[in-house]
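Work Package 4 report. The design task specified in the project plan requires that, given a folded chain encoded as structure tokens, an amino acid be chosen for each position. We show below one input record used in the internal validation round.
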């Protein structure tokens, strides 16, 4: 390849690269900083392009002090919120509010996959015991084995803290069931292990329920 040919090739390659980059992220009539802001919002879970646009335009209309306060809140939350040393729920302290609450039943642990499940159970105001957040579910397909979850610390809590019952509250899925089975086998030697009942959603019609849900509802029946 002679020198002239090389430069022509290089020039074409650069143009193509530039075209590919701009084709990947079209500006759609927005100035670049605004397009970047929309792109950031779009990366958040549950936010589509239209909502991202609405949020970005809303941000632009806010006074500068409000934006600074919002940005600082984001940074501080990221810096300060960590995991509870005991149960792995989100907290800015060493131990979370649930673990240090003296009115809670310290003999029961409810095992959940992540903090969102814990918060959902807390909203029911039915459960007054402690929790343990696993940090996920066993999933061989995704390379997640029990060693990657907070299981050793759970066993330690059960043996050290005089726990009398462990309630498994994991999603009824292949991964959830695999994890429940694994934990039940592992923990039954030390403690009473129960599982939350799975059944029909409140207000739903029995005839429209799928077979698996109905079978689970029958399996989880109890005296009335
Ligand atoms: Zn805790």
């Amino acid at each position: 390849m002679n020198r002239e040919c090389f430069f022509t090739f290089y020039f074409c390659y650069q143009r193509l690269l530039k075209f590919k980059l701009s084709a990947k992220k079209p500006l759609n009539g927005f100035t670049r900083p605004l397009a970047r802001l929309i792109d950031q919002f779009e990366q958040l879970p549950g936010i589509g392009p239209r909502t991202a646009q609405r949020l970005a335009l809303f941000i632009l209309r806010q006074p500068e002090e409000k934006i600074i306060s919002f940005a600082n809140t984001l940074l501080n939350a990221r810096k300060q919120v960590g995991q509870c040393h005991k149960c792995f729920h989100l907290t800015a302290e060493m131990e979370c509010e649930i673990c240090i609450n003296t009115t809670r039943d310290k003999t029961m642990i409810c095992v959940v996959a992540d903090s969102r499940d814990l918060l959902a159970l807390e909203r029911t105001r039915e459960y007054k015991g402690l929790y343990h957040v696993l940090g996920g579910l066993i999933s061989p397909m995704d390379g997640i084995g029990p060693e990657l979850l907070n299981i050793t610390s759970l066993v330690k809590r059960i043996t050290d803290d005089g726990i009398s019952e462990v309630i498994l509250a994991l999603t009824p899925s292949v991964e959830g069931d695999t994890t429940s089975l694994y934990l039940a086998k592992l923990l039954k030697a030390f403690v009473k292990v129960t599982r939350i009942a799975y059944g029909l959603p409140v207000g739903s019609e029995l005839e429209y329920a799928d077979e698996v849900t109905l079978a689970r509802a029958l399996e989880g029946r109890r005296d009335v």
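The pocket of zinc ion is lined by residues 84, 86-87, 89, 95-96, 98-99 (CB under 6 Å). Validation will be extended to a larger panel in the next phase.
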